[in-house]
Design brief:
Strand content: 15-25%
Bound molecules: adenosine-5-diphosphoribose
């Protein structure tokens, strides 16, 4: 079966990584404008690097949970396209072979001047010279608000060609990901949502499975055979 899965911060919550819109979430303690926009980076690159250095350290100290492991297992039995909004590498560390990071990844660094990409060191600073052009214009390879998500053509193809679409641990607040279920549904694809609570786009799904991902995802994967 061809399955397309979208994951959000909720799949990593039980690995101890903060989500964005919970009461103690990242956006409660940081202004999006300051740390997740090109304008914020231009205004204070030091603050932005500190924010992502903290998140990179948290991700490095976290471990994949049963939900990540179940999706890695799913890829061994079905034609799975795994898309994540998350920038941690817990899917990769769980063994998922091909993870599409539509919002980039904490493991990547990008030169704002020449576009060169390389593996991010654990700690980045505005003074780091680009390995290719030597200019001090390095940034985390993260897609900020107002920037184009990565790999969208491949993602739309995977949504249209799927037999089944599942969204796991995402609040359905941020487009284009929040529109994936509607797009899949228009193409006649069965849509299921796995979440702890109701998402903002819950009505776009044929079926909803409520509970913590570390319990619901392994059960759901087992049900697919
Ligand atoms: N199991 C399953 N779902 C959970 C769990 C859990 N243990 N804990 C939280 N959730 C759900 C919440 O109910 C919520 O619907 O995960 C979702 C987290 O929502 P957000 O914090 O908004 O995270 P996400 O949907 O991934 O945000 C999307 O917004 O700020 C941008 O770029 C950022 O990629 C992010 C995007």
């Amino acid at each position: 079966m061809r399955i397309t899965v979208l994951t959000g911060a909720g799949i990593s919550a039980e690995s101890g990584l903060a989500t964005f819109r919970a009461s103690d979430g990242l956006w409660e303690n940081h202004r999006v404008e300051d740390v997740a926009t090109p304008e914020g980076f231009a205004a204070d690159p030091e603050l932005v690097h500190r924010f992502y250095n903290m998140r990179r350290a948290a991700a490095a100290g976290a471990r994949p949970n049963a939900a990540h492991l179940a999706l890695a297992d799913l890829a061994r039995r079905h034609d799975l396209t795994l898309v994540t909004q998350n920038v941690d590498d817990l899917h990769e560390r769980a063994g998922s072979p091909d993870v599409i990071h539509m919002h980039g990844s904490l493991t990547g660094a990008l030169c704002a001047a020449c576009g060169h990409r390389w593996p991010a060191p654990p700690v980045m600073s505005p003074d780091d010279p680009c390995p290719a052009c030597a200019r001090p214009s390095t940034r985390p390879d993260i897609v900020w608000f107002g920037e184009m998500p990565y790999h969208m053509e491949r993602i739309w193809d995977a949504l249209e060609s799927a037999d089944l679409f599942a969204a796991i641990g995402t609040s359905g607040n941020v487009y284009p990901a929040a529109g994936f279920a509607q797009a899949a549904r228009r193409g006649g694809v069965e849509c299921v949502e796995l979440n702890l609570d109701d998402s903002a786009n819950a009505r776009d799904f044929h079926r909803r499975i409520t509970g913590p991902a570390s319990r619901t995802v392994p059960d759901w994967v087992a049900s697919l055979g």
